[in-house]
Structures are given as structure tokens and as C-alpha cells.
Write a structure and sequence with these properties.
By secondary structure, the protein is of the alpha/beta class. 34% of the residues lie in helices and 28% in strands. It has two domains: 109 residues, Immunoglobulin-like; 237 residues, Zn-dependent exopeptidases (Aminopeptidase).
Length: 389
């Protein structure tokens, strides 16, 4: 009996030791890097463990303070001065259980984002990312008037937003073929694209189409066309088909997280990173930070795509029949631009008699176009989206 009690005590002691070593594993930060962005600076930290941190701003003088808890920093890292950061120093947290990093700033700034990334496939390091942007000269609206500011917000007319429409299929590729009227999907999508272009242009948007005639364009080239136009939004138009003739309803797709991660890895392997994300300077960055920038850009685009999809669903459910679980996720090639919010709209089923008939009707396409146009207007008027353009 004594031996059993002793054995249990030993096991409990070992378990507690293991738990303690996991819970209090020291995070060793090996690198601190900065990268230039359009509106500010991105700071990236590499660590061996999950980051426990606080990041906040102080004034008089202006400083960004980052407290890294339970952390040691290898060597004596330097952060060169740039458009926002004046100087950098490292101190100890009270109690000696971490480090305090102080970035002296050249003026007022805001923390746009702060988040940690888990180790990616083939890599062992955790990463902490802080996006620092210049503070606007004008003061932010008071909290009491915030709701009013949102309600009356209008996008900046000086910055014309660019929408690229992608009528699916074309040329030698007819797409789905209607069961009842033998309607080609490529013709429906082209007609829908032309109608939508007209409506969007009437609302002040600059609109381009990947094709405006019956020609075949490879999927990857469609993405390149959108990037060449510096699109703010990419909308691919399609019509669905299934063996179930009763299936009806519109649906909208955005890129799945798994597909996005795989695509980021493929991009890093096969393309010049300087050409991947428009407006970013990669020349002074290490390969690791460039991989982070690509991944973060895709995450940002995917989040914006989902926001736009929500606006489309909200408008469409008032006008036409939609699928259950209307917003879906997939790895469609045309959704994989790393820096452009992108959606694929399945306008309905040509395998269904009623919907094929509707999609052939110009007045029905006009109704669909009006709903999508309202969605585009709402999306660009969203303060969160507008502040990033």
C-alpha cells in the first residue's frame, strides 16, 4: 500500500513538473524585423513559443511600448530608423520575467493591427506582428458622434474604386449547358457582366472585364488581369449545374483558409515576391518576413472578401431565391489573388427549368445586377474597408 501511495506521489510530481515546464517555457526571441508598407511600418518578431504580450502607445514623447512576458531576447537586435520610428531600446519588465521594448516615434501613430501567428508548415517559430501607421492630422470623431459618423460616411470621391468583373468560361469552354433551353453558361455570364458593368459605372466605379467577347481566358490569366488593373474588388460570375433538376438558388464563394495557405506557399516558391503584393517594398526584407507579408495580405483579402460576400447575401435574399448556407468556401483558382478581395457568384442553376429561364431574361439579370451594385456600394462605404484604401 505504501509503495502504491509513493508511486502515485512520484507520478503526480512528474506531471506537475511537465505542466510547469510547458506553462512557463521561456520564449526566446531571435529576430526583430521591420518592413515598409503603403501607410506605415510592419514590425515582426520571431520567437520559440507563443507570445504573451501587451502593446500600447504613450505620448510626451511619442512611444510604442511592447511588453513581452516570460521572454528572453537573443543578442542585441537593432531596429533602423524609418519614416515612423526614431529610435529603439530594450529594458527589463518588473520582476525580471520579460522584456520591455520601446520604439521612440517621430510623431503621432496608431496601432492598426497586432496579432500572433502560429508556426507554419516546415517552420518552428512563432511570430508576433505589429502594424504601425501614421496618425491622421485631424482628430478622431468623439465616441458620442461615432454612430452618426458611420451612418453618414461616404467614400472619398477623389479615389475612384476599381472593380474587375470576370464572366466565367468563354470561347471553346461553354461552361454548364442548360437542361431545358440548352443555354450556355458562358453567354449568361457575359450578358450578366455587361449589365453589371453598366450599373456599377452609373454609380461612379471604374469597371473592367476580363473578357467582353466570346473568348477563352485561362483561370490564372484572369487573376493577372485583375492585378494589372490594380483592382480593389474582383467578382467572378458563374451559373451552376447539378444532376438534381430541383436544385435552385444563388450562392457566393470566397477562398477557404486551407486553399489560401497552400496558395501562399506556392506563390513563395514560383514567383518573384516583389511582384506579388502591389505597393509593398520587399527589397530590404528577409525571405521569412516576405513569407509573412504574403500570408498576412492573403488573410486581409480573405477577410474583406467575406465582408463583401455578407453584403451580397443580405441584398440577394431580399430579391431572389438563395441557397441555404449561401456563403461558401472553396479553392477556386480565380479567388487566389493574394492582394485583391475576390468572390465567385453562382447566379443560379441552369439545370433547373425556372432558373435557366430567369437567367435568360434581361430584366432578371438587371435585378441581380442592382443587388450586386448595392452590395458594392455598401462594401466600399464600410468605414473599415474605406480606411484601408
Amino acid at each position: 500500500m505504501r509503495r502504491l501511495v509513493y508511486l502515485k506521489a512520484v507520478i503526480l510530481f512528474l506531471v506537475l513538473c511537465c505542466y510547469s515546464s510547458v506553462a512557463w517555457a521561456l520564449n526566446s526571441v531571435s529576430n526583430i524585423r521591420t518592413g515598409q508598407q503603403n501607410d506605415g511600418i510592419r514590425i515582426v518578431f520571431d520567437g520559440t513559443e507563443k507570445f504573451q504580450y501587451d502593446a500600447f502607445l504613450l505620448g510626451n514623447p511619442n512611444r510604442l511600448v511592447i511588453d513581452l512576458k516570460n521572454t528572453a531576447i537573443k543578442g542585441n537586435p537593432k531596429v533602423p530608423a524609418n519614416a515612423i520610428i526614431r529610435d529603439f531600446r530594450i529594458g527589463e519588465l518588473s520582476g525580471g520575467k520579460g522584456k520591455r521594448l520601446v520604439f521612440e516615434l517621430k510623431g503621432n501613430a496608431d496601432i492598426k493591427r497586432k496579432f500572433a501567428l502560429e508556426p507554419q508548415a516546415g517552420k518552428s517559430n512563432w511570430r508576433l506582428v505589429i502594424d504601425l501607421v501614421r496618425h491622421p492630422d485631424t482628430a478622431a470623431p468623439k465616441a458620442a458622434s461615432a454612430a452618426k459618423a458611420v451612418a453618414t460616411y461616404k467614400p472619398n470621391p477623389k479615389r475612384q474604386k476599381i472593380v474587375v468583373l470576370d464572366p466565367g468560361h468563354g470561347g471553346k469552354d461553354p461552361g454548364a449547358i442548360g437542361r431545358s433551353f440548352r443555354t450556355y453558361e458562358k453567354n449568361i455570364t457575359l450578358s450578366m457582366g455587361k449589365e453589371l458593368k453598366k450599373q456599377l459605372e452609373s454609380r461612379g466605379f471604374k469597371v473592367f472585364m476580363t473578357r467582353s467577347t466570346d473568348i477563352f481566358i485561362p483561370l490564372r490569366q484572369r487573376v493577372r488581369i485583375a492585378r494589372n488593373y490594380h483592382a480593389d474588388l474582383f467578382i467572378s460570375l458563374h451559373a451552376d449545374s447539378t444532376v438534381n433538376r430541383n436544385a435552385q438558388g444563388l450562392s457566393i464563394y470566397t477562398l477557404s483558409e486551407t486553399a489560401s495557405d497552400k496558395e501562399a506557399a506556392a506563390l513563395a516558391e514560383r514567383e518573384n515576391k516583389a511582384d506579388i503584393i502591389d505597393g509593398m517594398d520587399f527589397s530590404d526584407n528577409s525571405p521569412e518576413i516576405n513569407d509573412v507579408l504574403i500570408s498576412l495580405s492573403q488573410n486581409d483579402s480573405r477577410n474583406k472578401s467575406s465582408k463583401f460576400a455578407a453584403y451580397v447575401v443580405n441584398e440577394m435574399k431580399k430579391q431572389v431565391k438563395i441557397q441555404n448556407n449561401t456563403h461558401r468556401f472553396a479553392g477556386f483558382a480565380v479567388l487566389k489573388a493574394p492582394d485583391i478581395p475576390s468572390v465567385l457568384v453562382e447566379l443560379g442553376y441552369v439545370s433547373n427549368y425556372t432558373e435557366e429561364k430567369y437567367l435568360r431574361d434581361p430584366s432578371y439579370r438587371k435585378k441581380l445586377g442592382a443587388a450586386i451594385t448595392r452590395s458594392v456600394v455598401s462594401y466600399f462605404a464600410d468605414p473599415e474597408i474605406a480606411s484601408s484604401l
